[in-house]
Amino acid sequence: MRLDIPRDVSLDGHVVDGVMGYLTLSTGIAFALLVLVLVVTLLFHRARRSRPHAHFTHGDGLSARLLTVAVALTLFLAIDVTLAVRATRNLRERFWNYPDGDPNALRVEVTARQWAWTFRTAGPDGRFATPDDVVTLGDLHVPVGRPVYLKLRSKDVVHSLYLPNFRTKIDAIPGSTTRLWFQAQDPGRFEIGCAQHCGVSHYKMRGWLIAAPEDAYRGWLARAETDSRLRYDPADVAAHEGWDWETGR
Amino acid sequence: MSPEASSAQRLNGAVGMAVFLGACAMLFAALLFAYAVVRAQAVAWPPPGTPPFPRAAAASNGLLLIAAGFALRRARGHGPKWAAVSLGLGALFLLMQAGLWGRLVAGHLGPGTGALGDVFFALSAFHALHVLGGLVAIALLLRPRASADARPRRLRLATLYMDFVVAVWLIIYVAVCVA
Amino acid sequence: MTAPDAPPHPAAPPQTPTPSPSPSPSWLGRVFSTDHKVIGKQFLFLGLAFLAVGGVMAMLIRWQLARPGQPVPLVGRLLFPGAGGVISPAAYTSLFTMHGTIMIFFAVTPILIGGFGNFCVPLLIGTRDMAFPRLNMLSFWTMAAATATLTASFFVPLGAAASGWTAYATLSTAIGAPGAGQTMWTVAIYFNGVSTVMGAINYITTVVRLRAPGMSWFRLPLTVWGFFLTSILNALFVPVIAAAMVLLFFDRIFGTQFFIAGSTIRAGGDPILYQHMFWLFGHPEVYILILPAWGIVSDLLSFFARKPAFGYRVTVWSLIGVVVLSCVVYGHHMFTTGMSPLLGESFMVLTMIISVPTSLLFLNWLGTLWRGAARMRTPMLFCVGLVFTFGIGGLTGLYLADIVADQYLHDTYFVVGHFHLIMAAALLLASFAAVYFWFPKMFGRMMSEGLGKLHFWPTFLALNVVFGGQLLIGWAGMQRRLYDPSAYEFLAHLLPWNVWISRAAYVLGAAQLVFVLNFFVSLRWGKPAPANPWEVGTLEWTLPSPPPHHNFDVIPTVVRGPHELGSPDALARGKDWLGQDEVLP
Fold first, then answer.
1. Sign of the CA dihedral C403, C406, C411, C417?
2. For residue C21, what pLDDT is reported?
3. In this complex, which of B15, B16, B122 lies closest to C256 when CB atoms are compared?
4. Quick check: A15 and C336 CB within 8 A?
5. How far apart are alpha carbons C103 and A183 in whole angstroms?
6. Can you give the pLDDT at residue C32?
7. Element at A110 (helix H, strand E)
8. CA A243 → CA A123, A130, A222, C545, distances in Å?
9. Is the predicted pLDDT of residue B160 greater than 60, yes or no?
């Protein structure tokens, strides 16, 4: 019975694993101490002939209160405060530090609907709403080693783009645009899931994230945009996926 | 009942009514919060294309409700027939509200036609249900078989409730119809 | 701390001499009884019945997860006739929706708050009935009507609600959920809320106004504090979900757009508005459910360890602290919705701060047990079980409070394991502790100790396997609410885990039959219960088992706190406890 965790192939996913590890260690120690106290009391502090009555105290003396406050405070500082400080820093420096001005970042518009994901990339010209935009159903192609910047919308209900191998997810909400960024460090095929109940086929709302080295990615993009150019009809506005990245319209 | 027992019972009623009004206040506060969000999301308020809202009609209905509140207050010193007047005015308010809703639906301001219609209808319909509840309470305390001893206490509680219901109407009116 | 024999508190409110009318001989009078003890039992039976319904649903969910697509044995063809006994994806979505809804609103709430709250509060504070007995009766029948509405929703054409107990818009609006089932769900939740608020009005007024002379605030049993504080949260926040239900109802029936985003042609609202309103209620709701459990366990640990509750005042202030903080942490359910960073970070910090009062409360439990002389009777076993499961459950909350970890863990089985350890395991254990403890007082008979222990061990062990196992598969990345996890390649290897979790769940289900047996057999043939079988000092144990209709012949005068066990004064009198109203010469 293996309990394999999805392999982390992202730039910042190790931070998530680090937090989980620290929490397991610290709460593990706290819980072990708790169990120890419980075991001792249940084995030795029970009613028996040699122990006819309990040690009488209301536990409201100064030393008792200081002890409980000290333990609670230690836990709070060691766990909560440490985590909060590290989380705030990591959120601001990494996860919520979106590559808005970064020319190197690949921008992808994601549309969620019952029950599939579509992805629109700007194509080699780097601009959306041009004939070389590439729209894919279910497959998100990304290059390795460059930031990938997603903006998401939903056509119907709330969905959630879940990238287990990148230790992250973000909701797609009808009427709003949300965003997510990540960077693949290794090539490969990684599953995309939906992580917000969205109807009867929520369990099948899957996709694939295909991370390829830069050359291979550019090769794919060139082939894909050639196909797109052939099919692009500037008059058929209703068939155009996505929206204007800059203005949001 | 002894005087201290009846004053104790009165305090119980006051505490209970305070909790009840607190809960109702939270309900209307949540509805108003939803209104605030809808309004903040809109590009302009009222949203473009919304027909003009019949403020005068809504205001005159409100006056009926305020009159009902005053009538109930008067019943405290001047006899239960004022409670019956309050009941009548309150019922008239509800009838007029129903009429207003009909007019709004006909004038493309009903629920489902636009944000202003949505908001006004949701808030005023729920408010009207609360008025109805108050009227039922007044009717119950006016029953011939109801205990005459309990009447002053029940009247006091009903008055507190009607004051609250009138206050909510004023807030709804100002927030939705005036602003 | 109050000195044991202090004189009666001078400012206690005068008793309101409005006893309920004597028990009515007519069956109509009995069915619509205004006696808090009868109403409490009505809530208890309703809650226990629906606990069974919710439990069966859980067994069905676990069957599907362990053996996806296979027909359910025995009852499959009866329950899912159109599909040959197989649970379809649509049926599955209704199952987990109604399981959650029933367990929270129609099982735990009636058992703990409606059942034990009603039965215990007047007895524990030394009065004859609730402040508003007829409102109390209405509260039960409103709950019954809500329950009937929810039950009826199973039989409408498109089936019962299926958008999760959380019913996020727009899945729960006409966009995602056509059909009367979801609409009836909103109505049922609304009237469940009305019942709860009626109860809150009663409990708050009763505790504020009807305490016996000498029963000062800091002499109240912690059980009463639990019910009182829960009622404050109920009064404040149940109306918020009621408002959400009203707006959802309007969106579904009248075409309004509160929870549906606007467009260029029509202004509208925001689906996220629903989430804010829902969780503004939803987070306090989990504290609403756990506060009575915390209060009961705090008392029972003291009673069975035969020593006072450790740090009573600190415990009370911690409970109050949790109540205050619970109002401002709800955003931690919405970390992945793209909220502003400042808002997210604030919710994270506030959520973490709640650890402080919670750990103080917890440490006080350990202090109560430490150097006690514990009597390991059935209620005590369940309390210790709660301490254990709440320990794990509470600590796993920290993983979810940290936004960095929550990015990965949100909407996975880690969350399911976390909240089930607290909501299901801890609450279930507390409810059973309460039943075993107050059964003698309620029904005048003792339950079987042997069967109680036979109920406890498999229940406790299975709870840990089921929900601990879910923590692990959540860590491995399995999302919630999946009809068939093997649809994902990265989850296929977790099937054996789901199989074992399901097996433990079946053991858990089977173990409850021992409880059912014990309950009904003891009801009929249990040993007649003395007035005070547990030898503790709270006021209900001064009365016969069961108490007479009017509770107290003479309203007692309280002279000490509820946890005076093992004191020198008691020992000097050849026993190890003193009653709250026991005057010493």
1. negative
2. 54
3. B122
4. no
5. 42
6. 95
7. strand A106-113
8. 14, 11, 22, 72
9. yes
| Burial of C352 from C-beta contacts in 10 A (0-12 / 13-18 / 19+) | buried
Q: What is the pLDDT of residues C114-172, one digit of tens each?
A: 999 999 999 999 999 999 999 999 999 999 999 999 999 999 999 999 999 999 999 99
Mean per-residue pLDDT for C557-570?
A: 96
Which own/partner contact pairs does B10-15 have at CB distance under 8 Å and 24+ positions apart? B10/B153, B10/B156, B11/C13, B11/C209, B12/C16, B12/C131, B12/C132, B12/C205, B12/C209, B12/C210, B13/B153, B13/B156, B13/B157, B14/B157, B15/C131, B15/C204, B15/C205, B15/C208, B15/C209
- pLDDT, one tens digit per residue, over A62-107 is 999 999 999 999 999 999 999 999 999 999 999 999 999 899 999 9
CA–CA gap between residue A127 and residue A133 (Å, rounded): 8
Q: Using the beta-carbon criterion (under 8 Å), do C244 and B22 form an inter-chain contact?
A: no
Residue type for C208, please? V
* Residue C352 tokens, joined: 């973490």
Query: What number is the average pLDDT over the span C321-346?
Result: 96
CB atoms within 10 A of CB C10: 8
Q: Enumerate the residues of chain B whose CB falls inside 8 A of the CB of residue C200.
A: 19, 23
User: What is the pLDDT at residue C24?
Assistant: 67
| Inter-CA distances, A131 with A125, A150, A232, Å | 9, 20, 5
Give the C-alpha separation, A174 to C257, whole Å. Answer: 13
- A148 phi and psi angles, rounded to 5 deg: -115, 125
Chain B nearest C-alpha distance from C37 (Å): 20
Residue C213: C-alpha distances to residues C6, C206, C565 (Å): 12, 14, 22
Between positions 187 and 206 of A, the ones with CB within 8 A of C are: 191, 193-204, 206
Mean pLDDT of chain C: 94
Note down the domain range covering B29.
3-178
CATH code assigned at B73? 1.20.120.80
CA A95 to chain CA centroid, nearest Å: 9
The total number of structural domains that make up chain B = 1
Element of type H or E holding C431: helix C427-443
A231 vs C408, which has greater pLDDT?
C408
Tokens 């309703």, residue located = C46
Label residue B78 exposed, middle or buried (CB < 10 Å: 0-12, 13-18, 19+). exposed
Q: List the one residue out of A170, A32, A167 whose CA is nearest residue C475.
A: A167
pLDDT tier at C101, thresholds 50, 70, 90? very high
Per the DSSP assignment, residues forming a β-bridge with A10 are A184
Interface probe with B: pick from C125, C134, C142, C209, most Cβ of B within 10 Å: C209
Q: Please give the share of chain C, as a percent, with pLDDT higher than 90.
A: 92
Give the architecture-level CATH label for domain A106-239.
Answer: Sandwich (2.60)
CATH, domain range C27-572: 1.20.210.10
DSSP B108: T
- In order, the DSSP letters of C108-138 are IIIIIIIIIIHHHHHHHHT-SS-S-HHHHHH
| DSSP secondary structure of B17-52 | HHHHHHHHHHHHHHHHHHHHHHHHHSSSSSPTTPPP
User: How many CB atoms within 10 Å of residue C9?
Assistant: 19
In contact, B8 and B16? CB cutoff 8 Å: no
